[in-house]
Amino acid sequence: MGKIYLVGAGPGDPGLITFKGVQALAQADVVVYDRLVNPVLLYLAPETAELLYVGKSPQKHTMGQEGINQTLVDLGQQGLNVVRLKGGDPSIFGRVGEEAATLAAANLAYEIIPGITSASATMYAGFSVTERLISEKCLICTPTAKLVEFAAEPLAQISQGGSVVIYMGMERLEEVCQTFLAQGAAATLPVAVIQWCSWGRQQKVVATLDSVVAKVHEQDLHNPALVVVGPAAGKGAERSWFEQLPSFGKRLLYVTDQPMTFSEMTEYTAQGIDFYPYFVGDAYDERFDSLHQRWASDLQDYTVEYATPAAKTAFLKEQGGRR
User: Known catalytic residues?
Assistant: First the structure.
C-alpha cells in the first residue's frame, strides 16, 4: 500500500531539506514537484521514479491546483509512494491544507513533512527576522489575495519593533510600501528584498520604504522574492556569511558523463554556487529532458565546465555546437 508525502523542499539551498524529506524521496515511485524546487533535490529519488512537473509561476500554471489535487489522488489510488515536493515549507502559503483535505476525502494515507521557509533563510542574506530588543515579533503575510485585508493589519505598528515578512508581494511592492506609509510608518524604515533566497543566484536590495521600489527596478529584481519590512532588515545591508563564500554568485552548468551523488552535488552548492548538473553519455537520464528544456533560457547565463573531454564532445554534439 502506497502513501503520499507532502514534503517541504526548503527555500533553495538543497542542503536544507530535512532528513525525513530525504527518506521520503528515497522511496518515491513518483515525485510531483514545483517550480521553486532546486533540481538537485530530484536526484535524491530512485532512478526508477517518475518525475512529474506541476510548477506554477505568475500568470502561467502548468497545472491548476484542482488538477494537482486530482493527480495526487489518481497516483495514490494506484498504490504508489508519491512525494509532492513543494518549495519552502508547504504549510506557509503552500496550499498543503487543500491537498491534505483532498487526500483525506479519498481515504488515502498521507504524511506532511515540514520544510524550512524563506523567512528563516533570511540569515543567508545577513539578518534574522527576529532579534532581541530590535525585532521581537513577526508577521508573515501576503497581499496577493485581498490587498484590502492586508492593509487592515497593523503593519506600521508591528514593523516598529518587529518584522513584517511578505511572501509573493513583488507585483504589489509599491502598493505595499504606500500602505505602510499611510499607516504612519517612517519613510526611512528599512526594507529588504531578497530574490532567490539561499540559492547561489541570490540577490538583494536593502533600502527604505520611500526608496526600495526604485532600487528594486534599478537592480531588476523580480519573483521569487521575499520582502521584509522592519529594523532587522537593515542589517542585510552588510554582506552575509553566505555572500562571502568564495564562489558565491557563480552559476555553473556542470556537464558530466559520470554519475554523481547528492553529496557530491551539494559540495558545489555549499560553496555558494548556483549549480546545475547535466548528464550525458552513459550517465544520461531521459527523465530530465523536460527539466533541461524549461531551464534552457536560464542556462545561457551559466559557466560551463566539463568533467571529461568525452562529456564535452557529447554535450556539444547534443547542443549542435551552440556552446
Answer: 34, 56, 168
Q: Residue 111: which residues within 8 A CB-CB, separation 6 or more?
A: 3, 4, 5, 6, 24
Beta bridge partners of 110: 4
Strands 82-86 and 60-61: unpaired
- Residue 197: other Cβ atoms inside 10 A: 25
pLDDT in tens, 186-241: 999 999 999 999 999 999 999 999 999 999 999 999 999 999 999 999 999 999 99
Band of residue 180 on the pLDDT scale cut at 50, 70, 90: very high
- Residue 203: all three cell numbers together: 540577490
Give me the torsion for CA of 303, 168, 138, 206, rounded to 10°.
50
Helix axes 173-182, 212-219, angle to 10 degrees: 170
Burial of 78 (0-12, 13-18, 19+ CB in 10 A): exposed
What is the value of pTM for the model shown?
0.93
In DSSP notation, 96-151 reads HHHHHHHHHHTT--EEEE----TTGGGGGGT--S-BTTTB--EEEE-SSS-HHHHH
SS3 helix, strand, coil % of the chain, rounded to 5?
35, 20, 40
Cα distances from 293 to residues 122, 132, 172, 278, in angstroms, run: 30, 46, 30, 12
- The pLDDT of residue 257 is 97
